Amino acid sequence: MSSDADSDRDPSVQCDACDAICCRLTVVLDVDDRVPAHLTTHTHEGLRVMARDEEGWCVAVGPDMGCTIYASRPEVCRRFVMGAPYCRDIRQVHHDQLRRGIPLTMY
Ligand code: SF4
Ligand code: SF4
Fold it and tell me: Which of 38, 40, 50, 64 to mutate for ligand 2's pocket (most ligand atoms within 8 Å of CB)?
C-alpha cells in the first residue's frame, strides 16, 4: 500500500542526478541531532543550524554532492522526501535562477 507521501512523489526525480539543492536550505538542528560541532553554527536569532559555504551549500555536502554525515544527518534531512512537492519546488526555483543567470537564493 502506498502512502500519501508516496503518491505525491515524482519517481523521475532522483538525488543521484541532483546537485543537492535541498542542502541549500536552512537546516535547523534538533536537540537530539548529533552533528559534529564544527559543522554547525548559530543564526542571529540563536537557532543552531548546519553551517553553509559561501555558495550556500551545507558544509557537510561532499565533492560528489552526497552527504558526508549521512548516518548521523539531522532529523529534518531524514524527513525530506526525494521527488515530493517541496523537493520539486526548490529544484524548479534553483534551475530557473540558473537558467536566468540570476544569483541563487539563500533559503
Ligand atoms: S531530495 Fe530533492 S532536492 Fe534534495 S538532493 Fe534529492 S532530488 Fe535533490
Ligand atoms: S546534513 Fe547532509 S543531508 Fe542535511 S543538508 Fe547537510 S549535506 Fe544535506
Answer: 50
For cell 542571529, name the residue: 44
54 CB-near residues (< 8 Å, 6+ apart): none
54 C-alpha to ligand 2 centroid (Å): 16
* pLDDT tens digits, 26-44: 999 999 999 999 999 999 9
Burial zone of 26 (CB within 10 Å; 0-12 exposed, 13-18 middle, 19+ buried):
middle
**Which stretches within 3-64 are classed as H helix?**
4-7
Is the pTM higher than 0.85?
yes
pLDDT in tens, 41-64: 999 999 999 999 999 999 999 999
Nearest ligand to residue 77 Cα: 2
What is the spatial distance between Cα 91 and Cα 69, in angstroms, rounded to a whole number?
22
Task: Please give the single-letter amino acid code of residue 75.
Answer: E
